[in-house]
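Below is how a single chain appears once it has passed through the pipeline. First comes the sequence as given, then the structure the pipeline wrote out for it. We keep one example in the README because the format questions we get most often are answered faster by looking than by reading.
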Amino acid sequence: MMFNHFAADSKIWIFVCSKDLTQAQNKELQNELDAFVAQWQAHGKSLEAAFELKGRLLVVCVNAASEPASGCSIDKLYLILNTYSSKHQVDFMDRKWLLAENGTCLHAQRDTEHLAQLKGQKIVDLSVNQCESWINQGYIPVEDSWVGNKLK
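Resulting structure:
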């Protein structure tokens, strides 16, 4: 796990992409995020940040032991993702994507007839917002999630 050396209370943002990225798109996004985190600042102070991009899952973390992210600096992260999303017709902001550990990815509203496929699976917990929680329990049983009552 890339964030093991970050403070436990470090802030993370979790995104699930609306579709699989091609190898070229994935590499482009990695390059953009590498450049972004290398120069990311809050109020003129550098942020110690890192990200993980695995398939449709993107996790971005700012180390709380250094400078904390501010509203404006967080907006810059969202701008990068929105710009990339527009260019490639993908969406990182729709919180209704359910990504299971086994790679199954369904939309909670559009794929309701297929949600039963997730029974017994663990899905990415998009409500996690601290590094330690992500490392220890980034996935939760789908039945315990907000969509659990929709499973048939």
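The chain has two domains: 11-88, 97-150.

See the next section for the split statistics.
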